[in-house]
Predict the structure of DUF4321 domain-containing protein.
Amino acid sequence: MAGVNGKNSWALLLLILSGVVLGGFIGYLTRDVAFLSWLNYGQDFGIGSGDGNGMVRLNLGILVISFGMTIKITVAGILGVILAIIIYRKL
């Protein structure tokens, strides 16, 4: 699947996902470092039941299905996405 200028869109998606993951990891690692703790600042949002466990349950009698999703957007994650886009443009 070719994108703009014949570049692969899957490569962009992979780079952006890598940027989010690595940025979130760096933010998590720097949360206790005084001058870098701002990298872990962010917001959580997602799908959940509101009872604190973040799961939605579907009880069908003999089968119980639970699902949920939470996303944490941090400053480091946003910086990771920006860096991934810059790298993609340079390639």
